[in-house]
Amino acid sequence: MTAVRLDSVTKVYGNGDSSTTALDRVSRSIPRGRFTAVMGPSGSGKSTFLQCAAGLDRPTSGSVRLGETELTGLKETKLTELRRERIGFVFQGYNLLPALSVTDNITLPLRFAGRAADRAWLAEIIRRVGLDGLLHRRPNQLSGGQQQRVAIARALVTRPEVVFADEPTGALDSRTGAQVLALLRQLVDELGQTVVMVTHDPVAAAHAHSVLFLADGRFVDELLAPTADQVAARMTHLGEW
Ligand SMILES: Nc1ncnc2c1ncn2[C@@H]1O[C@H](COP(=O)(O)OP(=O)(O)OP(=O)(O)O)[C@@H](O)[C@H]1O
Prior knowledge:
27% strand; ATP binding
């Protein structure tokens, strides 16, 4: 089963002599219910892939489908609605609202969508991310790891088809980062959540079921059940291209 499908997706920034082809006819299925990591050297197109796959940016050409929905033809309002209701986002910088409590941060996507909270689901995700007892705090009263857990709970609250994570542990120390990655993996293994994570870090990528490698805007390799050493070795090889 496919969560997201890219067909011949090309993204060109700029035009003429100063143009950059960030994605070059990328065709790829992201499987449902799996944790997929995307790696590649700096400038290989990881962020561009995430932006296009998650409907944050539009490809120059090609097709992106979320489930049965073709994103490339959607009007901006429909695309915004789709992102809000069917996709969850986790960023390196957490992106929490400082004036809101943990609970209000988590339920914000529901308020934007005009949906009532499913109390049982809310309790379940709060328990899973380990935020019981912290619900009335503001983000600045939490550690980085706790803030990222709030962001993960917020990403899950609408029961999205896919969670896209962009360097989710980039701002965390390695121990806290490992806990956050273990949590993401648990959400996949126990709840069937689909997670797609862009990262520079082989240790982070090793938490995924599979790692896709980008080089110069193309997927050039894949590792299943990766170890950090294998991922690091593959990255070294890519750097030598
Ligand atoms: N808004 C933009 N305008 C022009 N060029 C861009 C823009 N965004 C990205 N690029 C170029 O597209 C290519 C791919 O960039 P992208 O950010 O997707 O790579 P990345 O793999 O995420 O890099 P990093 O690991 O350094 O974050 C790079 O050559 C980059 O310079």
